[in-house]
Amino acid sequence: MALVIFLRGVNVGGHRTFRPSVLAQQLADYGVINIGAAGTFVVAKRVSPKRLRSELQRFLPFETHAMICTGQELMAAASDHPFGDEPPRSDVVRFVSVLTEAPQALPAIPVQIPKEGRWLLRIISVHDRFLFGVYRREMKAIRCFSQIDKLFGAPGTIRNWNTIGAVLKVLEKLGQEGGSQRKSGRSNKAK
What pLDDT digit, counting tens, does each position of 11-30 carry? Predict the structure, then answer.
């Protein structure tokens, strides 16, 4: 069963920088595949999440949250087709926030930030610890990301939907299956 790693707050604005390709080489014994520069990896070989966290701590030059999920969990969440079949609007960016754990309580979906007036960020669907949303292509929308952790009660990290698509392609190539067979887990999608 493949694992997926999402590192939080790395290679952003010159802070907590590292070379993901080098980390992937250091973790080559686990079949680690680097996806982009934001700290996203697919782990092809069997390893426990606990062992993987220990290895990450050994090789990263700083501490950070590492959200680790199975490929099956991510595929199950994406199989809900959270964004529907319509192409994305040009003024918004689709994203996924991966939380450290599933929220204990869910706010009413969709969640709009700010609550009043013109929204900058919207959470439109929740599947276990995966939050699917959109934000406007405006600098002030980035400030809204910090509110997600507070609203859902767990730290998370954001990835562009295109990055998630790249991860899903790698998982499919590795022969992962069962995304739609997984029946456990909460899903809450805006109508």
Answer: 776 777 888 999 999 999 99
